[in-house]
Automatic annotation (TrEMBL):
Ranges for domain General secretion pathway GspH: 48-152
Principal location listed in the UniProt entry: membrane
The name this protein goes by in its record: Type II secretion system protein H
Subcellular location: Cell inner membrane
Highest taxon of the lineage: Bacteria
Alphabetized Pfam families for the sequence: GspH
Protein's membrane topology: Single-pass membrane protein
Transmembrane spans: 12-37
Amino acid sequence: MAKRRSSATSEGFTLLELILVLVLMGLVAGLATPFVMSTVERIQLNTATRKMAAALRYARNEAVTHKKRYLFSVDIDANRYSLSRGDDEEQTLERTVEGDARVAAYENESEPVSSGVFSIQFFPQGSASGGKIRIEPVEREESDSYYVITIDPVTGASRIEQKES
């Protein structure tokens, strides 16, 4: 006679076990989401900063290569930057700061600028008017970090520093 398996020994999962696993997966996903979102925002801020630093290096290289003065202009209110030749104002590059980042301020020997437009000049010898550009998250909190791009007036080189509030 063939043995019959009882329902207690059958293979598979019960409905209760499946529901419990789904609830635990939902909890883990709910706890991980804020961490993932803050990581994405940090990556966007870092990327926006690196793109602007690359544009500043490009401005310096163009000034040296073409032996002409170039202006790197930033509109803080519109969150945009552009590069133009100093003699004819022809724009060769225009970009918007993307992601969860914004240009917050510019410091030079003169008054700090936190709204409006400012320009950094790059000269044919490789020097620049210099200054510091502060880039921070759009939704700024007390614990957020921000970036500062420093443009050396003697060499025209730009350097990125990450700072904590």
